[in-house]
């Protein structure tokens, strides 16, 4: 590959530095608002098909949170992180004879309406959202802010059901 002559490079000016604005997104509050709105949308959908509201569990939601942090860390570094700890926490929170079904997803926007719609369009997430007999359910959201207020919104929808139950 040919290089540019040094005489041309002497007169070239360096590219201007572009300053990126630091994020201003209130991640915790936004995540809580997204969770609330998406749960409400799922419950409304369940009601529209004559199913009761989901039995939302704050404890299960809390258990799922480290997985979302691990997903973002893996997305950034390419290296899995914390899977053994997460598996142990899930096994401790799911009793014998039951199984956890979960659907993690990442979005590049923070629209609860679009997130709920995407979940209800996906077959795996929809199966969880419309399960007839969930014992406990959880929705957890984590918002990660980047410069210029770009966001990575991680969600995980999960339900604990009797083993061998609905498919």
Give your account of this protein's structure.
- With 167 residues, the chain is of the alpha+beta class.
- The protein is 46% helix and 20% strand.
- It has a single domain, classed as CAP (Pathogenesis-related Protein p14a, 3-Layer(aba) Sandwich), CATH 3.40.33.
- The chain has six helices and three strands.
- Helix 2 (27-48) packs across helix 5 (112-121) and helix 3 (58-77) packs antiparallel against helix 4 (83-93).
- The mean pLDDT is 90.
Summarize the structure.
This protein has 167 residues and is of the alpha+beta class. The protein has six helices and three strands.
| Widest sheet: strand ordering | 1-3-2
Report the major sheet: 3 strands, antiparallel
Tell me the helix content. Answer: 40-55%
How many separate helices? Answer: 6
Keywords for this structure?
167 residues, Pathogenesis-related Protein p14a, 3-stranded antiparallel sheet, 6 helices, 20% strand, elongated
């Amino acid at each position: 590959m040919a290089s540019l002559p040094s005489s041309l490079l002497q007169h070239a000016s360096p590219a201007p530095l572009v300053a990126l604005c630091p994020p201003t997104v209130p991640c915790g509050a936004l995540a809580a608002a997204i969770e609330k709105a998406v749960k409400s949308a799922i419950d409304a959908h369940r009601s529209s098909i004559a199913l009761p509201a989901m039995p939302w569990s704050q404890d299960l939601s809390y258990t799922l949170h480290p997985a979302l942090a691990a997903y973002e860390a893996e997305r950034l570094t390419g290296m899995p992180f914390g899977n053994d700890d997460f598996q142990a926490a899930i096994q401790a929170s799911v009793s014998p004879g039951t199984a956890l079904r979960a659907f993690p997803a990442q979005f590049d926007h923070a629209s609860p309406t679009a997130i709920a719609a995407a979940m209800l369009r996906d077959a795996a997430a929809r199966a969880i959202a419309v399960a007839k007999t969930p014992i406990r359910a959880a929705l957890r959201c984590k918002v990660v802010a980047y410069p210029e207020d770009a966001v990575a919104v991680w969600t995980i929808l999960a339900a604990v059901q009797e083993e061998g139950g609905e498919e």
